[in-house]
Amino acid sequence: MDEKIKNNEEQNTEILEESKDEEVQSNSDKEEVNTEDQEQNDFNEANLETLKKELDETKDKLLRSLAENENIRKQIEKIRLETNRYGVQPLAREILNVVDNFERAMSSKNQNSEASLEEGLTLIQKEILSILEKFNIKKIEALGQEFNANYHQAMFEKETEDYNEGHVCEIVQDGYTFHERLLRPTLVGVSKKEERIEKADENQESVKIDEKD
What we know:
The structure is a single chain. Strands 1-4-5 form a 3-stranded antiparallel beta sheet. It is of the alpha+beta class. Helix 2 (about 90-105) runs antiparallel to helix 3. The mean pLDDT is about 80. The chain is elongated, with a radius of gyration of 51 Å. It has helices at about 1-85, 90-105, 115-135, 195-210; strands at about 135-140, 150-160, 170-175, 175-180, 180-185, 185-190.
């Protein structure tokens, strides 16, 4: 009987010890879990702070970029307006030189012969054409060329044997291009063949009338 009681006590003691060990292990596991959770939370908070910082930096860069783009747009608009307003200034300066030469020629016309005046006006004309060409304003060379509706405007047709049919035979007003773009079309007369049959018939009728007479 005493032996049984002793064995029971030993078993209870072992059970208690195992229970204590399990409890210690459980507490240890809980502590480890809590430690891991805390570390994870700390890691998430650190990442969140980093992300917030990067977001703020990105937002700042975006705002700066938008501001710079707006400044560039305003500068371009200002340049465009100034170009529209003052873009012809170099041409105007060149034209003033022509005006000065023209006034000199007109003021001295009474002192010079008509030949000298004509020579002076011819030089002024050449100077004007040179200035226009300097600014890529070029006269369209149309005489003798095949009619081209992109550069020529037909004013009339003219019977002639001097030019092929459908070619420019007369210039009414010169046309010009500006940087290869049409500035003003050339007003032209276009050649067509002479109607020889009608002329031949007229000659025959004239001969018949003469014979009757």
